[in-house]
């Protein structure tokens, strides 16, 4: 059975913007029961103003591979960070409870971090970048691996003994021991596999526990659309980096990878 982590709400809507799949924690939005929500217009859950904003945002989706985000969104009494992607005329929406206020200047942070990179050696730049990402995200350890999953650099400068497989989609675990939330409706829809907060499987949980890791963040890195590597962040206790801060980290990491490639890095 598909499930999502409790920090996020999952919604899958069809071309008519009616709910086809919902996570069982939909009651966070009000007096709703998952089975009754399936088949209902999304506007009935989040309100006309929120649905107007969301539909405008998803109109930015350029292809089935792209995603859009909106930070600090109000759905009723909740402040949420929202991520959406699509497949044809179906939309996957993940809304997570905001853990921090909006950043004062996200783009400025990326520029400042990029300006701090020095020298012309790609691996040295990578280690500088991992240290900056460690400070930005607050995770215990931040690693960069290439597209084969080989270690490139870590925030402490040492190679990790843990596996660093490359990923093609963002994958997040906020709390290894959190109780997964089941999905109601069309659980087999292919779009669901693209949710960042899918509950980890039994094998993944055993691996995390064996490595004493409680929270992880994996962000794919692309140059001109081609996958070149992955950022892996790990923490020994539950942790969830704010969505806007994650987005800043992701943008900086992709700029770092592009600069490394210009200086001869072969991912």
Describe the structure.
It is a single chain. The chain has 267 residues and is an alpha+beta fold. The protein has two domains: 95 residues, Beta-Lactamase (2-Layer Sandwich), CATH 3.30.450.20; 121 residues, 2-Layer Sandwich (Beta-Lactamase). It has seven helices and twelve strands. The radius of gyration is 19 Å and the shape is globular. The relative contact order is 0.19.
Write the layout of secondary structure elements.
Layout: E1 3-4, E2 8-13, E3 19-23, H1 34-37, H2 43-46, H3 48-58, E4 67-75, E5 78-87, E6 90-97, H4 106-115, H5 122-137, E7 141-146, E8 151-154, E9 171-173, E10 181-185, H6 202-210, E11 215-223, E12 226-235, H7 243-262
> For the terminal residues, how far apart are their CA atoms?
36 Å
Strand % is 25-35%
Going by CATH, the architecture of the largest domain would be 2-Layer Sandwich
Class from helix and strand fractions: alpha+beta
Summarize the structure.
The chain is of the alpha+beta class and 267 residues long.
Main attributes?
267 residues, alpha+beta, Beta-Lactamase, 2 domains, 7-stranded antiparallel beta sheet, 5-stranded antiparallel beta sheet, 7 helices, 28% helix
């Amino acid at each position: 059975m598909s499930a999502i982590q409790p920090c996020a709400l999952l919604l899958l809507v069809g071309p008519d913007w009616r709910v086809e799949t919902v996570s069982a924690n939909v009651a966070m939005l009000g007096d709703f029961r998952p089975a009754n929500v399936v088949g209902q217009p999304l506007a009935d859950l989040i309100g006309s103003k929120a649905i107007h904003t969301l539909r405008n945002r998803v109109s930015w989706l350029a292809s089935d591979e792209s995603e859009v985000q909106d930070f600090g969104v109000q759905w009723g009494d909740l402040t949420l960070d929202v991520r959406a992607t699509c497949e044809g005329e179906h939309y996957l929406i993940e809304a997570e409870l905001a853990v921090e206020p909006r950043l004062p200047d996200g783009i400025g942070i990326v520029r400042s971090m990029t300006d701090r990179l020095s020298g012309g050696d790609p691996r040295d730049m990578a280690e500088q970048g991992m240290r900056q990402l460690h400070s930005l995200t607050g995770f215990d350890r931040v690693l960069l691996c290439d597209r084969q999953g080989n270690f490139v650099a870590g925030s402490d400068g040492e190679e990790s003994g843990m596996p660093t497989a490359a990923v093609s989609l963002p994958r997040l675990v906020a709390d290894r021991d959190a109780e997964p939330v089941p999905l109601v409706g069309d659980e087999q829809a292919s779009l669901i596999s693209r949710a960042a907060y899918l509950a980890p499987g039994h094998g993944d949980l055993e691996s995390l526990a064996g490595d004493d890791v409680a929270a992880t963040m994996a962000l794919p890195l692309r140059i001109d659309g081609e996958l070149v590597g992955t950022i892996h962040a790990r923490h020994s206790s539950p942790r969830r980096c704010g969505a806007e801060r994650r987005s800043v980290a992701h943008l900086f990491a992709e700029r770092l990878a592009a600069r490394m490639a210009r200086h001869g890095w072969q991912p």
